[in-house]
Design goal:
Length: about 210
């Protein structure tokens, strides 16, 4: 049975943030809130934890994870960002967007799109996530908490606990989340392409 940490959404308690980060470093799978829906997360490059997330989501090994980053400099470590893309990222972050970019060599090969060598990255506008990332010092490897057969991602902490308490190690309860996933923008070509319309307004970038 997973442990539940109730963390204040606006003023995260440092002691509880440290406990959550310790679980990530230990190889645990966690559920945590973002500025869109809740997400499944684990430490970057943790193969066993990633396989557990794929089992929960019932996806194959080709399913792409997103690297949740704390700032633009961290994105630049894992993706190739020129001046044009940097300006777009700066205008859209932090916020409910996922960006597909060409991956750098810092990204484990198994996390990249097998043919395009791309990676999804995002910077959420959420105090709990910012605190987790600041303490962890590296991105969280994540995917949307959308269970097989569900139309929308999970966003209610009580429902999350009822359905997934035996599947994950830690649930970070930051209060009710959004039902929509992020908006996904492909920035690998000259002009941004809308891949998925979600919570973020993509119209200024298209």
């Amino acid at each position: 049975m997973s442990r539940v940490l109730q963390i204040h959404p606006a003023n995260p308690q440092p002691r509880l943030i440290s406990q959550a980060v310790a679980r990530l470093r230990a190889g645990d799978v966690i559920i945590y809130p973002t500025d869109s829906s809740y997400a499944l997360g684990c430490r970057l490059g943790d193969k066993a934890a990633a396989e557990r997330i794929r089992a929960i989501r019932q996806t194959d090994r080709h399913h792409n994870f997103t690297l949740v980053c704390r700032d633009l400099s961290e994105i630049a470590t894992y993706a190739k960002v020129d001046n044009q893309r940097y300006r777009l990222l700066k205008a859209a972050t932090p916020g409910p967007f996922t960006f597909l970019l060409q991956a750098t060599h810092e990204v484990p090969r198994r996390l990249q799109h097998p043919r395009r060598k791309t990676i999804g990255l995002r910077i959420p506008d959420n105090a709990i996530v910012r605190a987790l990332l600041a303490e962890l010092g590296e991105p969280i490897m994540s995917c949307t908490l959308l269970l097989p057969g569900d139309e929308w991602p999970l966003s209610d902490p009580e429902e999350i606990e009822d359905r997934l308490t035996h599947a994950v190690d830690l649930i970070v309860d930051g209060g009710p989340g959004q039902h929509e996933p992020t908006t996904v923008l492909d920035l690998t070509e000259d002009a941004p392409q809308l891949v998925r319309q979600g919570l973020g307004d993509a119209s200024p970038f298209l």
